[in-house]
Write a structure and sequence with these properties.
Radius of gyration: 16 Å
Structural class: mainly alpha
Number of domains: 1
Bound molecules: fe (ii) ion
Helix content: over 70%
């Protein structure tokens, strides 16, 4: 198993922990939801880049690039990036306003979409790409 796979698995756990704090019934009062959302978006960016440089690169010689699970994962990264970009613009300058995500129409619309896309994407990777990566040699 390549060493980076453990790191990606830990990333998924952190992403899920952050996402759970943004569920409507879990919004906390001790930290502005915008700050949690920004933390999730920044970490998601870093994680996606890490995956593209390790997981996707390692699997691209053995999987088709125009279709199949790798192509789906790349498309999902692009979709997450698009929604994440809109959310970053929406929260960009108002992180000190604790009610802000609730008050923003963009956030109200795009946050549930981001959380849905993210969970679907993490599950897909864990059931398709990660098992393939586990069988790669440690030096991959
Ligand atoms: Fe991913």
């Amino acid at each position: 198993m390549p060493p980076w796979l453990h790191e990606l698995t830990m990333d998924h756990a952190r992403l899920r922990a952050l996402a759970s704090r943004l569920q409507p019934h879990r919004v906390e009062t001790d930290q502005p939801p915008g700050a949690i959302l920004l933390e999730l978006l920044l970490f998601l960016d870093q994680h996606s880049q890490r995956e593209e440089e390790t997981l996707f690169r390692a699997l691209s010689p053995i999987l088709p690039t125009g279709r199949g699970p790798l192509a789906v994962a790349r498309a999902e990264h692009a979709a997450l990036d698009a929604v994440g970009g809109r959310l970053r613009l929406a929260i960009g300058v108002r992180l000190d306003h604790p009610e802000y995500p609730v008050a923003s129409r963009t956030v109200r619309h795009d946050l549930p979409r981001l959380l849905w896309l993210l969970e679907r994407h993490l599950c897909a990777e864990e059931t398709s790409l990660f098992p393939l990566a586990e069988r790669l040699p440690a030096g991959s």
